[in-house]
C-alpha cells in the first residue's frame, strides 16, 4: 500500500451506548417475557405473536405488520405501509382487536413500535396483555421470525 500511495481508512471507535437497561423502559416499566417460548397453544384467539418485516420493491421498501395466532399458526392480521411508523402498528393492533375474542396475550420483540406508550396503552385498553422477547434474543420470537 505504501508503494502505491494508499492509506487505510481507520474508523473511529463507536461511542454508541445502550440508553436503556435490558428489559426495562426509561419510565421503569419492566418488559416481561410471559410467553417464555410456549409456542404451542391449545385455544385459538388467545395468544398472538407479531413482528414487522421489510420487503424491497422497485420504488422502495414495503413494510408488513403481521400477527399470527399461535394455536392455528394462521396469519390473522396483515397490514402494509410504505413506511414503518406508529400508524402501521396501531392499524395492526386495531385489526387484531376485531379478530381476538376477549382478553389475549400479544407477544413481540422490544421494538420501538411495540414499546411506545401509545401502543402499550391501546393494547391494554383492547384487553391485550403484552409479552416481550428478551433484548437481542431472536429465539424468543422465533415462531414469528420464521
Task: Describe, in plain words, how this protein is organized in 3D.
It is a single chain. The chain has 146 residues and is an alpha/beta fold. The protein has a domain at 47-145: Nucleotidyltransferase, domain 5 (2-Layer Sandwich), CATH 3.30.420. It contains four helices and five strands, in the order E-E-E-H-E-H-H-E-H. The protein has helices spanning 86-99, 112-115, 117-125, 142-145; strands at residues 47-57, 60-69, 75-81, 104-108, 128-132. A five-stranded mixed beta sheet has the order 3-2-1-4-5. The longest helix has 14 residues, at 86-99. The protein is elongated and about 70 Å long. The mean pLDDT is 85.
Question: What are the main properties of this structure?
Answer:
single chain, 146 residues, alpha/beta, Nucleotidyltransferase, domain 5, 5-stranded mixed β-sheet, 4 helices, 21% helix, elongated
